[in-house]
Every structure is written in structure tokens, then in C-alpha cells.
Amino acid sequence: MSQLNALQKRRQSGVVTMAILLVIFTFIFYVTSSRVEPVIYSFYLGDEWKLISEWEIGSKSGVMIFLIFALIGVTISFIQFKNNKKITLGSLMFGFGSIMAFLSWAAAGKFIPLTGLLQAAVLLAVPLIFGSMAGLLCEKSGVINIAIEGQLLFSAFVSAVVASLSQNLILGLISAPIAGALVSWILAYFSIKFQVDQVILGFVINVLVLGLTNFFYTVLLVPYESTWNAAGSFSAIPIPVLSKIPVIGPILFNQTIIVYLMYLIVTVIQIALFKSKWGLRTRAVGELPIAADSVGIDVNKLRFRNVLIAGAVAGVGGAVFTIGAVGVFSQSMTAGAGFIALACLIFGKWSPKGAFIAALFFGFTNSLQSNLSIAGVPIPSEFMLMIPYIATIIAVSGLIGRVRAPAADGIPYLRGTK
Amino acid sequence: MSIELKGITKKFGALVANDSIDLKVARGEIHAILGENGAGKSTLMNIVYGLVNADSGKVLVEDKEVIINEPADALKYGIGMVHQHFMLIPVFTVAENIALGREQSKGGFLSLDEIKKKIKLLAEEFKFDIDPDSLIENLPVGVQQRVEIIKALIYDAKVLILDEPTAVLTPQETDELLSIMRTLKSKGTSIIFITHKLREVQDVADKITIIRLGKVVNTVASNTSQEELASMMVGRQVDLAPNKTEVKPGKIILDINNLSVSNSLGRKIIDSLSLQVRAGEILAIAGVQGNGQSELARAIVNLEDHVSGSIKLDQKEILGITVQDSLRAGIAYIPESRELDGLISSFSIVENLILDVHDISPAAKKGRLNPDYINDNSAKLVNEFDIRAQSIFDPASSLSGGNKQKVVLARELSREVKLVVASQPTRGLDVGSIEFVYEKLLAERSANRAILLLSSELDEVLELADRIAVIYKGEIVGEVGSDVSREKLGLMMAGIK
Ligand SMILES: Nc1ncnc2c1ncn2[C@@H]1O[C@H](COP(=O)(O)OP(=O)(O)OP(=O)(O)O)[C@@H](O)[C@H]1O
Ligand SMILES: [Mg+2]
User: Fold this and answer.
1) DSSP code, position A333
2) Whole-angstrom Cα distance, residue B497 to residue B489?
3) Which end of chain B, N or C, is less surrounded by CB atoms within 10 Å?
4) Which helix (H) or strand (E) holds B199?
5) Is there a contact between B108 and A276 if contact means CB atoms under 8 Å apart?
6) What is the CATH number of domain B252-330+416-493?
7) How much is the average pLDDT of A79-95?
């Protein structure tokens, strides 16, 4: 049979995309490149067991090594495709090789702290992960959550203020989910009780939170900074032994309590959503609420509860911005993270695992971008800022394939209407 | 368990869907409800089940009044229901769908083992072939229907409401279901059974209540004749056997050669099929649901993806052209699933009636819709096809099943066509509407159009067809005239030559 089904076609287009990109990369990073200065990669931050601390390689040789690696990835993908298997392994190898080849090209003559770069990537991804989990909890049960941005911003504000006033970071951390849930309550109350359009409502909530926090910022946080906006932040807690593992240790296991909380929440949601009674019901009301209703499930109550939980989860993510990082609140400091989180949710195909990986990817490209800027790579900064988005478009077009939102996402449920 | 309804009234806007309805079903009684499309049967049952709330009236269980505000209440009183529109979540497995609402957990984790065992037991008992682990969206409608039935049976309902459970079942499956109903009855279960097939009613019901325009017309015994039942339902004499005039078949209009269709997984659904239909002739493709007839119909209007062979319409090859070009080449297409493929539910009746011609004159002029023509045309069609709606601007979703089908018919048959492809055109329709559809199809035949009828209803095939081709596993396994016996046709459809 020469005819391919939809899945095979998608894989085919994935392999073709990778092959074309590989040719383009080879051309730009190798054939036309005149960079010869070596790149210094550092793998050692100081606390972990030492394996190697630095690796120095000429720009062109580095590019060649990693492009060959990417080529092997494409070849494996092609073989996987021919054998009618998933092309994940090959694609990952291709992605890794391409990124490293880019790095070897762009950072010629520079110093790249690889472990630090990855550590920052996780840190940048954390609020996105919380945000996308919040989106997931809502959308899986059929409520569109555009208000993630507002939930993040409001809880960032509240946690900073509470921690400042009480001079207690734990209190700040406890107040964050409450603040997030409060914002969610507005979403739940109006969209579920009064069937207000969820997208418009979410947008209004974002604007409302922005206005409120801006107002209090100028009238309270700026003039009385020392009492109202001096929260301080959590310090990293290295986990014994695990944090000593070279490279991986400092990245994953030498982080703040909020990051560990994130691991826990993602794991719980992933398992609960697919393996528990609550998860089955949640997915049911997000797919076909009338079917859930017809077996005695209170659709709107479940949705209401899930939206509140979602707000609480986003709330913890909001705390990352203030007491999880810089220790103070500043105006509109979430800077669109809520929307990126929403994007992660979609790229992750509405699955906790997928959203988690998508957010890490965003975090990585962001961290890469800022590291390269700091290293002083001679690429215009505007272009550098585009990297996360370009990388995402490539990843989505070639590899992700068909995404399907929960069928009843955004549709209010009212019994007895057709 | 006995159940009684007293003075149930329900209005949707100005429309009185149920007008003070009384109904009494004794313990262990099978009570059939007959009525035209839109008579208010489903509304009444949804009220009993708590999915719709009545404006007034009472429900009594075992002679005690009960308040049913939501399905949870109905379930509490032991009322179970098989809904006319499947209440199944497409992305869930059979077991997940059946477990939903009554899940069992082990140590906080969902446990489906017990429910799977129960499903297997019930499926064996009723000779249903169901795999608890398959996804609903991958199952043919006939199997989905069985899942619905199992879902209602598995929790030992004392009162079982069956809203058109046989509409998509094969004759054999229907017989199985009827015998299940008898078994349940002997155990004391009360059953309310809605169907449009009079044969089934006479076969299994103890009592029959006829509803017309939201009111109870009469409650009669099961020995009432089909003609009487039909005329009580419709309020006039119904001709159960259509009048077929002599038409001399003309030239070949549809010429299919070596057609093969594969599904998205590469499996052959139709294998080297050839057939011809002449002008003024009805060729019926008889077959049990799921033997390739849906794909055949879809392939003719180029809705299928993996097709090879040749399809000629009036000597012109049409395979591979767009759907729009196929329709405009002169094909009327009546899809088997009117909700999914025939209509856009959220669009008004008016809009649904011009889906096919919305961009060409006279419906559109200079890139703009022409409301005068469109509205006049709708009013005319609604009248001609007797579409019962409160307003032509109502969404199609508010129509009853039969009226939805009439909208599809009205749209498709109002175009100038050479070929009519009708897939299960009377599924879910009342006798009056069936008579109407038959008349329309025969009128097309008289007007010298070629008609390809795909149907799993033996009676329909025998009544209408000039020739009958039997499809089995994607191949035509034989061709017979319309004088073939029901038994022989049934055997051929089961693959026995
Ligand atoms: N939610 C609703 N909103 C408005 N009108 C409705 C609604 N539900 C039903 N109707 C109308 O009420 C009438 C009765 O519908 P119902 O579904 O009860 O008919 P039925 O007897 O079950 O018909 P069928 O045999 O086609 O299933 C129809 O005219 C229908 O259009
Ligand atoms: Mg009905």
C-alpha cells in the first residue's frame, strides 16, 4: 500500500521538515560560517560532584559534530517512520543536535555556562507550568481559562504583600493560592452561574487585576516600600545526595520549595486526571456534559470546584515571580506568562505531561536567549528574542500533530437546552 | 415497579411539547409509546428522567409521588434510560462510559475491573459482541447502541425507558433486544418502549399509548392493527405500502467500476465493487450496518479519502473531484447521520436549506446573500416538505429527528439532479414521514432520476427497490429482484449465499 494514513503522513512531514532544516542549518552554521574561535562550555557550578568542569571546542568542529548527531537523528526518524513507529527518539536527537550546533556557531569565542543555563531554564518554566496546570484543570472540565495571567499577577502581588507585612515567607506562600482561587471564583461564578462568555470574562478579569495591582502598587507599594514591598525570597534547598549529581543535580534538585511543589502538583494532576474517579468525571464534563449529567453527576458543581482548584494552582505559580525569585513585586511583572502558559497547554495537547514539557522547552529557549545576549553574541537582540517562538513554531509544525481540545471546552452547560 | 405520570405539561416557548399527559405503567409491563416525530415522546421521557423539568404535573412511583429534578433523582428511584441521542463520551472506552457516575476506587485509584467483568457477563447473556476496552469513537453506531443498552441494564433498573433503541440495530439485534425485554419483564421490570416500528410494538408490548401533538390520543392493546395504530398517530389514513408506478429504466446514470475504499488505517472497506444504476430506477443496496454501505455513499460524493477505481456520472468521471463539484454535477446526497453530516445544528432552518447553494445565484448575488429569495424559498420548502417548526429561523437543533431529516431532504431534492444517493433515509422517522419520504423518492424515480438507496431495513428495500444488490464485507455478494423473500434476503445479508 502506497497510501499513508493521517498519522503516517504527519510523521512523513515531520521527517521531511527535519531533513530540510538540517540542510539549511548545515548551510548557515557550517558551509558559509567563517567562525573558528572555540566555544567554552562549562558544566560545573561548584556544589555538585565534579565530573568535568569545562569543554572547549572549535566553533566549526562543534557545529560539525552536532550536525552529524542531528543527521543521525533524522536517519533514525526515517527508519522509525518506515517501520511505522513513533519518530520521537529521532526527533529529540535532531532537536538536541540542531540546538547545540546553533550554540556552537553563535557562541564562537564565548563562554557558555551550560548547567547554569539549564537551571535558569527550569526556573523560567516554573510559573508557566503552574499556569498551564491551571489552564488544564479548567479546560479539561470545559471552562476556558484566559484569566491565568490575572491569577498569576494577583497572587504574585498578594504573596509579596503578605510576606512583606508579616515578614514571613511561608505565610506569603499560603496566601498565594487563596489569592489565585479568589480570581478564579469570579471566573467560575459568572461563567458557570450566568453563562457569561468565558473568553471575554477571562479577558476582563486580566484587565481588572492589572488595574488593581497597578493602583495599589503606586499608592502603597512604592511610597511604603519597606513595609509593603520587601518580602524577600525563598532560598534554594539542595536535596541531599540528589543535588550532588553532576549537571542534573543543580538543575533539578537545588531549587526553592516552590519548584519541588511544582513537581508534586504536576505528578498528582497527571495521575489523578487519568487514574482517579475525579479525573474520569472531570474529563467527562469537559467532553459531553449532558452524558455526565445523565448518570447523576452535578456538572456545574464539579466545574466550579475545578476552576477554584485551578486558581489555587495558578496562585502558587504567581508566588514564583515575587517570593520565589526577586523578592519584590513590580508592575505587570508576569509579562504575559499566563498567555504563554495557555500556549504550553495547547502545545502539550491538553495533557499535564505535555504541558510540562512544552513549558520546559519555552524556559530553555528563553534561557538560551538571555545567556547568549549576556555572552555578547553578535546577533541583533530583537532576533534573539524571537528564538523561543521560532523554535516553538518548528516544533509544533513538524512534531506535535493534531491537537484536540476537550469537546465541550468553553460551552456552558444548562440542562434541557439542545 | 409501577410508575405513573399525571398531567405532565411542558412548553418550549409557545410550543406545547407535552399537554397534560397521563400515563400508567404497571409492574412488569412493557408499555409502548407511539407518536409522530415531534409528538413529544422524548420530552416526556426526559421529564421522567429529570433531564427536562416539567412546567406542571406529577410523577408517582409505586403510587407515591416523587420529585425528580435531575437524573440523580431518577437513578435513586431505580429509573434507567437509554437515550435517543447517545450519552456516550467518544474519547472514553466502553468500560469508562459505563462506569461513569458509579465508579469504584481502590486505594484512591479508579478501578474498572469489576465493571469490565459485569459488561462481559451481560454481553454474553445478550449475545452482544462488545470489547470493554475499545474507544467509543471507533465503534459503529450499532455497537454504540448496544453499549447504551448495557449501560442502562447493568445497574438493575426497576423502570427502564428505551427511547428508540432499535433505530440503528439490525433485525437480528432487534430480536435479541426484544427477547431481553421479555426476560426483564418476567423479573418485574417495567419498560417504557419508544419506537417507530409497528412490527416491534405488536411483537412485544402489553399496552400502547399513542401521543399526537403533545396529547395522549389513546391507550390500546397490542392486538390493534398496524393501520389503526398508524392512523391514530398521524390523524389520517396512512398508506403503509407505497404506490409504485411502472417506470421504464433509461440510460445508465451511475456507473461504478472496481471501486475500492480503504479507511485511515489502510484496511479495505470496499473491495473492487462495481454497479450501475439507470435513470428511473431504484437500486437498493441491502446490507447489515457496517458492511461498507456508508463508505460507498460517501465515496460517490467524494467524501472518502482513500479511493481507487472509477465512478462515472452520466458518462463523466467524477472520482477525485471536490465534494461541491460532485453535488453540482447532479447528485443529491442524503447522509445517514443527519446530525453529523446533513445539518449544521446551530444554524437556522433557513441557513441549512441553502448550505449547498449559498454562494451561487439566486441565493447569493454579487457576493452577498439574497435574503428575499432565501426566506421565500425556505418558507416554500418548509411548506412543501411539511417541516414542523415554530419558526424557519429556529436552529436546526430544536427540531425533532424526523423534521431534521425533512430539512435534509428538502435541501437535497430541491436541486436539479440526475442521481439521488439516499443512505438510511427513514432512520428514526415516524410512519407518516416514512410514507412521505417514500413518495418523494418514488417521485424522483418517476422524474427519471437514478436512485441509489442504501438501507438496512428489509421492508424498505423490498417496498422500494427495482433491483436489490446485497453488500457483505465491502463486496456485492448477489443481486436479486424485489420479489425475493424476506428470509432469503436476510440470509444473503448475513453473508450466506
Ligand atoms: N430544548 C428544546 N427547545 C425547544 N424546543 C424543543 C426542545 N426540545 C424539544 N423541542 C420541541 O418539542 C417537540 C417535541 O420534541 P420531542 O423530541 O419530544 O419529539 P419526539 O416525539 O421524541 O420525536 P422523534 O420521534 O423525532 O424523536 C418538538 O417540536 C421539538 O422541536
Ligand atoms: Mg424522540
Assistant:
1) T
2) 9
3) C
4) helix B198-204
5) yes
6) 3.40.50.300
7) 86
H-type helices in A233-334, by residue range? 248-252, 257-275, 277-287, 289-294, 299-321
Does A301 contact B at CB distance below 8 Å?
A: no
Q: Are strands B368-369 and B364-365 parallel, antiparallel or unpaired?
A: antiparallel
| CA-only gyration radius of chain B, Å | 23
Domains B3-234 and B252-330+416-493 equal at CATH topology level = yes
Residues facing residue B34 across a β-bridge: B210
Question: Rounded to an integer, what distance in angstroms lies between the CA atom of residue A290 and that of residue A407?
Answer: 12
pLDDT band, residue A2 (cuts 50/70/90)? very low
The per-residue pLDDT of chain A, averaged, comes to: 89
Contact status, residue B261 vs residue B292, Cβ threshold 8 Å:
yes
Which pLDDT score is estimated for B130? 87
- The whole-number pLDDT of residue A4 equals 66
Chain B residues inside the 8 Å CB shell of A276: 105, 108-110
* Strand ranges in B47-168 using DSSP code E only, listed in sequence order: 56-61, 64-66, 79-82, 104-106, 109-111, 159-163
Q: Across the 497 residues of chain B, what is the mean pLDDT of every consecutive 10-residue run?
A: 94 90 95 92 95 94 93 93 92 95 89 92 83 88 86 88 88 85 92 93 94 93 90 84 83 94 83 94 89 91 91 93 92 88 91 88 85 91 88 88 89 92 90 88 93 90 93 91 86 80
Say whether B105 and A276 touch across the interface (CB within 8 A).
yes
pLDDT of residue A1: 39
pLDDT tens-digit map of A288-336:
999 999 999 999 999 999 999 999 999 999 999 999 988 999 999 998 8
Q: Does B96 touch chain A if contact means CB atoms closer than 8 Å?
A: yes
Q: B155: nearest CA in chain A?
A: A295
Across-strand partners of B3? B25, B61
In what helix (H) or strand (E) does residue A131 lie, and over which residues does it extend?
helix A114-140
CB-based contact A69:A93 (threshold 8 Å): yes
Return the ligand 1 atom nearest residue B43 CA.
18
| pLDDT range class, residue A399, cuts 50, 70, 90 | low
Average pLDDT of the segment spanning A264-268: 96
ipTM of the complex model: 0.85
The residue type of B6 is: K
B3-234: in CATH 3.40.50.300: yes
Tell me the domains of chain A and their CATH numbers. Answer: 6-114 (no CATH), 123-396 (1.10.3470)
Cell numbers standing for residue B308: 481507487
What is the residue extent of each domain of chain B? 3-234, 252-330+416-493
Q: Of how many residues is chain B composed?
A: 497
Q: In what order do the strands lie in the sheet with B467-472?
A: B331-334, B419-423, B450-455, B282-286, B467-472, B475-481
The Cα-based distances of B14 to A17, B17, B36, B37 in angstroms read 59, 9, 19, 18
Ligand 1 probe mutation, B47, B217, B398, B399, most atoms within 8 A of CB: B398
Q: Is pLDDT larger for residue B306 or for residue A385? A: B306
- Rounded Cα distance between B472 and A104, Å, is 63
